Amino acid sequence: MKNILLPTDFSKNSLNAAKFAIEFFKEEECVFHLLNTYTPAIVHSRFMAATMHGGLVEDNVRSDSERGLEELLNQINTSYKYPQHSFKCISSFNLLTEEIKEIVKSDNIDFIVTGTKGSSGFEEVFLGSNTVRIIKSVRACPILAVPEDFEYIKPVRIGFPTDFKRNFSSEIIEPLIQLTIKFGATINIMHIAEEDQLNKYQHSNKEILLEYVSSVSHCLHSMPYFASKSDVIEFFIKEFGIQMLALVHYRHGFLEELVKEPVVKRIAFHTPIPLLVLPD
Asked: What is the CATH number of domain 157-267?
């Protein structure tokens, strides 16, 4: 049985991510943990004691959170009837990333599924601020980030960009292998050619990766480094019909480079397909 964590702020974005997760795992026995965190804005104010007399403000915000979770669960139960799925609602007075880390550990979470909504004023940045915070903070399980308007389709072409500058292990690659088997998919390994040829270390990492994926359908692409990395990935997605993108979250690695690219370089590339973040 899988434990799937669904953080929600009751937005269209988070609702779509929840619907995607239910379809994505529809053939598996799962417990979906619906999480909403709340922190009243006035909690750090010097007027807190007077304004929050008797915990009134916190009680009101908690009631709104619990009511929102109940309404979300009703929406899900109205639309989906998978008997192997069950749901647990969690309303917590805590910071989002801190609560997620606690739940991942206490409830043996297998996947986190969240949305990718960009921050206000920059609707098409690579990832939204909450998504980036979750990715940076949570290193213990895979994270699946779903674009706001993305409708579920079976992912049969999974893109896996890499620069071959980090080594791979079976533990890192295993979630990707399992999803590839689950959907009968092909892993499209994509190398951005920043150099004329691979050095010995990169070549060794490439051979190790190819050995790990040898049991499933896969192919290897080399893409010229003609612009920012996000531009190259966007071209790769369109050119090869990629339906899901997978990246390993190494510290100071490929994913962090993408997140840190200046907005002017990545403004045209919001994640058009689900992004699977594999923990190091």
From this structure: 3.40.50.620
